[in-house]
Amino acid sequence: MQHYIAYFSPAGTTRTVAERIYMTLQKHHLEAKLHDLTVHGSPLASFLQNLASPCVLWLGSPVYCDHALPPLMEQIAALPENLQGYSVPYVTWGGVCSGFALQEMGEALSQKCLPPLAAAKIVAEHSSTWDAPKPWEAGRPNPEDLILIDKLVQYVVQSVQGEASQPMDLRKLNYLSTAQQADAALKSLSKAKTAMGTPKADVARCIQCGDCVQACPTGAMSLQPWPAVAEELCIVCHQCVRNCPETAFPHNGALVAERIASMAAASDEDKVTALFY
């Protein structure tokens, strides 16, 4: 059974997990293909166009506002209905709340005849605190997190090599407390964009180098002649801010880290990497 590993990773931590999955599958002498789903790659449907059937699709997304990224969910929705095989959804989250992301991905993949065999939530450095004095969950995923990924791969490999592979019970992905579910239900990326706004460059500092355009994972940024954001495409990942050589996009990492710490303290979810079978 061939393995396909696809990921959406603006800040790079979801890609780190994907590369670990790829490396571990190779150690098991299994064929695997690795693919970036941002605008710099190609859509999931194109990646799976000539797939070997049945297959295992490993699909990774960061958690944004307690949900899987909308562009990734849109790519799942665009898949054909007649796929055969299994999936392994995984998410990276910044130690605040992993939300409904795994549940959403698992249900959507099941509708495409790729029911999950297993799933994982992996603690990762919070992507909004890179320039804070101490980034939130700095150094994650760490070696211990990645060892758990090896364990996940081993479980999946053994499952598909068995005579009767069984999809996991999706109810296991409904793991948040009642209070945390109520909080997550109030959040969305669109609400966050309304509250925070999308990045705006200070033209007095901007040198029109285009690094922000190249860094944008969704194609939301362009030069007209100054940086301009397509609001409907922006996911507020701040890669334009992070990659600007002139710090033309205002950003207060320390203040953001304080807000993230407060949100994490209010969340009752255990701040751990966890596997689900």
Note the overall shape: globular
Give the helix/strand class: alpha/beta
- Spans of at least 5 consecutive residues with low confidence: none
Number of helices: 10
How large, in whole angstroms, is the Cα Rg?
Answer: 19 Å
What percentage of the residues does DSSP assign to strands (E)? 15-25%
Main beta sheet strand tally, sense and closure = 7 strands, mixed
Secondary-structure element string: EHEHEEHEHEHHHHEEHHE
The domain count comes to 2
CATH architectural arrangement of the largest domain: 3-Layer(aba) Sandwich
Mean pLDDT: 95
Specify the helix fraction band: 25-40%
CATH superfamily of the largest domain: Flavodoxin domain
CATH fold field value of the largest domain: Rossmann fold
What is the number of E strands? 9
CATH class division of the largest domain? Alpha Beta
Distance between the termini: 19 Å
Write structural notes for this entry.
The chain is of the alpha/beta class and 277 residues long. The chain has helices spanning 13-27, 44-47, 70-77, 101-111, 143-161, 178-185, 189-196, 211-215, 239-242, 253-266, and strands at 2-7, 32-36, 55-64, 67-68, 85-93, 119-123, 221-223, 227-229, 274-276. The chain has two domains: 2-177 and 270-276, Flavodoxin domain (Rossmann fold, 3-Layer(aba) Sandwich), CATH 3.40.50.360; 189-266, Alpha-Beta Plaits (2-Layer Sandwich). The protein contains ten helices and nine strands. Strands 1, 2, 3, 4, 5, 6 and 9 form a seven-stranded mixed β-sheet that branches. Strands 7-8 form a two-stranded antiparallel ribbon. Helix 1 packs across helix 5 (143-161). The radius of gyration is 19 Å and the shape is globular.
